[in-house]
Design goal:
Shape: globular
Number of strands: 13
Strand content: 5-15%
CATH topology of the largest domain: Aspartate Aminotransferase, domain 2
Radius of gyration: 21 Å
CATH superfamily of the largest domain: Type I PLP-dependent aspartate aminotransferase-like (Major domain)
Number of domains: 2
CATH class of the largest domain: Alpha Beta
Largest sheet: 7 strands, mixed
Strand order of the largest sheet: 2-8-7-6-5-3-4
Order of helices and strands: HHEHHEHEHEHEHEEEHHHEEHEEEH
CATH architecture of the largest domain: 3-Layer(aba) Sandwich
Length: 394
């Protein structure tokens, strides 16, 4: 009896050609996920649960059914108002709840904005190394990424490169600060230069500030909101996931112009209808009641980053830190092989999980990302010893 060939479902070419989700791929290399020796630094997740007061509040929300129903497409007004107040205080701004929409996480915020701005074959300027989900979404939509090169001394992109990349198909410039994967924080002056270039070229400047709560809480990360016409150019993306340890609740935000919000309403209604209601309530509680807790976690992350820097000062270590900040360290490995090979060997032989640089755009084969936020600093010396042991082939 002749075997019939498997019938393959026809798939979108852009999706089929998009690279695999890197975290799932790296975790598939792990032989024993329950091994006590495993040092998992591949995914950016908080090391702690939400504040106990927030857990108690969420339990009450679930019991009462307060978060079980739909909200309006743009999200509940108390959360949007609380977000506006938070931005106004930190950035010396004057936005309102009407400038914001709550999304199902910051990834959904980015994908919605890209869908509203871009058509297939349009171009978006992104800084190398770039956040892998941003690049994946551009690939899935058939949008062409144009890359700002990696400065191997500072990990800060150079605004002067923009004019060489701008074309009639360019729709946006994307910055992530503090950066994923490098952890580098762009200065207000650097961000301002990108804003002025975007404005002069009539393209959007999308700034993903998911990790803004893990840098100096007493200084504004930039001054873009102070421009009277900020919303003509600037689009602010944010996430409540890391700051309040709500990664599973999926709550993010977009702050932008009224004209863009009208287009986002169509996308939001089709994609998610609204962000998860209980997550919105949790984020509202967090902004209003957990300022001290947030500062405590910020200080803890800062200390952890400093501890990692100290650990990497080991004289025998040939892995070199390019940059450290927020949740991440971007590390140059010492091998001739590409970072996919190096990362896989670290998993299979030394039980250390990282993300290879190839996941973050072109010309990143010499780098790997360590997400250190969920690893206790007491394990950093062991991490370094394993990295040193991995150098035996040199």
């Amino acid at each position: 009896m002749q075997t019939q060939p498997e019938k393959l479902m026809i798939t979108n070419t852009h999706v089929a050609q998009c690279s695999a989700a890197p975290i799932a791929e790296v975790k598939s290399w792990v032989k024993d996920p329950d091994s006590p020796k495993l040092i998992d630094m591949c995914q950016a997740v908080p090391a702690h649960l939400p504040a106990q007061a927030l857990l108690d509040y969420l339990a009450e929300v679930v019991r009462n059914g307060d978060g079980a129903g739909y909200t309006s497409w743009e999200g509940i007004e108390p959360l949007r108002s609380a977000l506006a107040d938070d931005i106004n205080q930190r950035y010396q701004a004057s936005i309102t709840a009407d400038d914001a929409v709550i999304t199902a996480g910051c990834n959904q915020a980015f994908s919605a904005v890209i869908d509203a701005l871009c058509e297939e074959a349009d171009e978006v300027i992104v800084a190398l190394p770039c956040y892998f989900n941003h690049q994946m979404w551009l690939n899935i939509r058939g949008i062409v990424p144009r890359y700002l090169t990696l400065n191997t001394d500072t990990a800060i992109p150079d605004p002067a490169e923009v004019n060489d990349l701008i074309s009639e198909r360019t729709k946006a410039i994307v910055l992530v600060t503090p950066n994923n994967p490098t952890g580098a924080t762009y200065s207000p002056e650097c961000i301002e230069q990108f804003y002025q270039l975007a404005k002069a070229n009539n393209v959007a400047l999308i700034v993903d500030e998911t990790y803004r709560d893990f840098i100096d809480l007493d200084k504004p990360p930039h001054h873009l909101f102070q421009h009277q016409d900020w919303s003509d150019t600037f689009i602010h993306l944010y996430s409540f996931s890391k700051v309040f340890a709500l990664t599973g609740e999926r709550v993010g935000a977009i702050v932008c112009s009224q004209s863009l919000l009208k287009q986002l309403e169509k996308i939001q209604d089709c994609a998610v209808i609204c962000a998860p209601h209980s997550g919105q309530l949790a984020a509202t509680y967090g902004i209003k009641h957990l300022a001290d807790w947030k500062r405590e976690k910020f200080e803890s992350i800062q200390q952890r980053g400093e501890a990692l820097k100290q650990a990497f000062n080991h004289s025998d270590l040939k892995y070199k830190l390019l940059s450290v900040g927020a949740y991440f360290a971007y590390v140059k490995h010492p091998f001739a092989e590409d970072s996919m090979t190096v990362s896989r060997r670290l998993v299979e032989e030394f039980e250390v999980l990282s993300i290879p640089g190839e996941s973050f755009g072109e010309d990143q084969e010499q780098y790997i990302r360590f997400a250190f936020a969920n690893v206790d600093e007491s394990r950093f010396p062991d991490l370094v010893e394993r990295l040193i042991a991995s150098q035996k082939s040199l």
